[in-house]
User: Which sequence fits this backbone?
């Protein structure tokens, strides 16, 4: 049976829920007291600490078992469970229970309490069934919505792939170019890109579209990027000057699950920019290896995306904050140690003019 959180049902002082079953809930002490089975309860009531020091053969035990008696509230709750009049002291409660054992009928659960237990359980199961059905309907709607989103992403991917293929055909090969190619203007390729990386989206069943944002630094010495590929995300910094239509990047980022950082020298991406705001390239991620990616600029403009240029400083800070020192601090935090505050991050010295 699928689990669904179901509130307990009550008929004071008794309640029923999926965790404790039929019980008495002491709200003042935040304690739950289930009915103790007769044999175990009798063992508790008749425990002889002195006799426990000896074996059945009468020999003194080297390590007699430790015994921790139950509380007053436990024994008082047992009186209620067995339909006996509550007392105000622990000893009185134990004496009343022992007297019930020694009676002609013995310690019995009254029929009206057994009937109440059955009724509360039935009421709880009915409420649980309603909630399970609601959960089932909600999950089915979510699956349908996810499937529609997946199908739309597939269509969008196929459309973009066709556009990349067309742009590749119309773009002159560097080998065939007779004149010197124009320098790539990084302002014109700045903006937000929709990304197709099928090895990522299919391999990790990513629901939403993958995104990459690009913007130049204030000196235009480097092109910076921020990407969200569902299963991992990060920041990119161009490692070479634009040559022809190609820019190489190094990136630092994190898995979006546990947040473990990745920043090694192998984290590289090479993008070739084609006409009509399209690029194709290759990228390396240690969980996947090298994979293809294609992108299309959502809103190309001759002046680039000036709004993103204001985000570059934050991208830089995050990029330079992902390093050996902070990795060790974060690793300690993942294993339960004190990881310090976010203000303790060590940021590598850097310059955008290098």
Assistant:
């Amino acid at each position: 049976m699928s689990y669904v959180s179901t509130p307990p049902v009550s008929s004071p002082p008794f309640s029923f829920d999926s965790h404790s079953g039929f019980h008495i809930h002491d709200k003042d002490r935040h304690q739950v007291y289930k009915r103790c089975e007769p044999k175990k309860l009798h063992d508790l009531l008749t425990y002889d600490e002195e006799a426990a020091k000896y074996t059945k053969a009468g020999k003194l035990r080297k390590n007699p078992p430790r015994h921790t008696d139950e509380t007053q509230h436990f024994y008082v709750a047992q009186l209620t469970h067995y339909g006996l009049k509550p007392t105000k002291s622990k000893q009185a409660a134990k004496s009343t229970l022992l007297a019930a054992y020694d009676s002609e009928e013995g310690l019995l659960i009254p029929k009206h309490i057994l009937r109440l237990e059955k009724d509360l359980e039935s009421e709880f199961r009915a409420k649980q069934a309603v909630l399970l059905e609601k959960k089932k309907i909600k999950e089915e709607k979510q699956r349908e919505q996810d499937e529609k989103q997946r199908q739309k992403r597939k269509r969008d991917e196929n459309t973009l792939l066709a556009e990349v293929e067309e742009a590749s055909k119309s773009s002159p090969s560097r080998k065939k170019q007779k004149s010197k190619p124009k320098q790539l203007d990084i302002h014109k390729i700045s903006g937000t890109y929709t990304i197709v990386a099928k090895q990522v989206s299919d391999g990790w069943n990513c629901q939403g579209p993958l995104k990459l944002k690009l913007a130049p630094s204030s000196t235009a010495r480097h092109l910076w990027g921020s990407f969200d590929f569902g299963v991992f995300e990060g920041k990119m910094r161009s490692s070479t000057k634009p040559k022809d239509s190609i820019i190489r990047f190094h990136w630092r980022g994190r898995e979006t699950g546990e947040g473990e950082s990745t920043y090694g020298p192998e984290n590289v991406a090479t993008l070739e920019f084609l006409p009509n705001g399209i690029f194709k390239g290759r990228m390396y991620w240690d969980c996947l290896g090298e994979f293809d990616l294609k992108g299309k600029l959502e809103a190309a403009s001759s002046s680039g995306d000036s709004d993103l240029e204001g985000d570059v400083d934050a991208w830089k800070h995050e990029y330079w904050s992902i390093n050996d020192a902070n990795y060790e601090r974060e690793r300690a935090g993942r294993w339960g140690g004190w990881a310090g505050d976010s203000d303790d991050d060590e940021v590598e010295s850097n310059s955008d003019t290098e």
User: Anything to note?
Assistant: The CA atoms of residues 250 and 268 lie 5 Å apart. Residues 111-170 form the longest helix (60 residues).
